[in-house]
């Protein structure tokens, strides 16, 4: 088993080196689908809804992975590869006030409009109602993730690290959405 994991990791790193954007997009899509399946199970679903998981995979593939990939490229251009505490804190603040804000808005909107199939008016109302609470919760988790990312991980692994932790974040968002939807009825 250990050898299999080593070979899989080596192949992943090879793919990441040759096709970083595609590799990150596919990884993000896969992990978004995993998060959705976990959230459905945690929410007590007796039968999985594969369409919802597939739509979350599309989100990760087309938006999550690519935007995070390009965001880190921009951050590397702006700040370089410095990992001193002052630079890392600047990176964390910039990420949380730009990418984090935009990402949470995007995923809440996508989840409501595309995955849940709400009307545009209902989507706007839901996002307006939920956004600030989600953002505040995000600021409890993501600054630490960003700090670890910028301090200890090589640039090519930053998206993977965030994607793995996004499994828990997406589960939180989906579960929060379910609770809010139940309360609305």
From TrEMBL:
Q: Which organism is it from?
A: Klebsormidium nitens (Green alga)
Could you identify this protein by its name?
Mpv17 / PMP22 family domain containing protein
Instruction: Please name the InterPro entries in this protein's record.
Output: Mpv17_PMP22
- Report how it sits in the membrane: Multi-pass membrane protein
Provide the primary localization: membrane
One GO cellular component from the entry?
A: membrane
What compartments host this protein? Membrane
**TM stretches of this protein:** 21-39, 54-71, 92-113, 157-175
Q: Which UniProt keywords apply?
A: Membrane, Transmembrane, Transmembrane helix
Which family, according to the similarity comment?
Answer: Belongs to the peroxisomal membrane protein PXMP2/4 family.
Instruction: Check the record and name the Pfam families matching this protein.
Output: Mpv17_PMP22
């Amino acid at each position: 088993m250990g050898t299999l994991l080593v070979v899989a990791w080596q192949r992943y790193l090879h793919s990441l080196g040759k096709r970083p954007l595609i590799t990150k997009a596919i990884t993000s899509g896969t992990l978004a689908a995993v998060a959705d399946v976990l959230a459905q199970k945690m929410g007590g679903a007796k039968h999985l809804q594969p369409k919802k998981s597939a739509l979350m995979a599309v989100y990760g593939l087309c938006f999550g992975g690519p935007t995070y990939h390009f965001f880190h490229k921009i951050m590397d251009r702006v700040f370089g590869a410095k990992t001193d505490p002052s630079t890392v804190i600047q990176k964390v603040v910039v990420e949380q006030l730009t990418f984090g804000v935009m990402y949470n808005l995007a995923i809440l909107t996508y989840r409501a409009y595309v995955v849940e199939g709400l009307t545009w008016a209902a989507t706007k109302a839901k996002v307006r109602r939920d956004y600030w609470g989600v953002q505040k919760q995000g600021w409890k988790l993501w600054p630490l993730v960003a700090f670890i990312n910028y301090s200890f991980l090589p640039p090519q692994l930053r998206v993977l690290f965030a994607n793995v932790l996004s499994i828990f974040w997406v589960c939180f968002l989906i579960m929060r959405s379910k609770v809010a939807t139940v309360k609305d009825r």
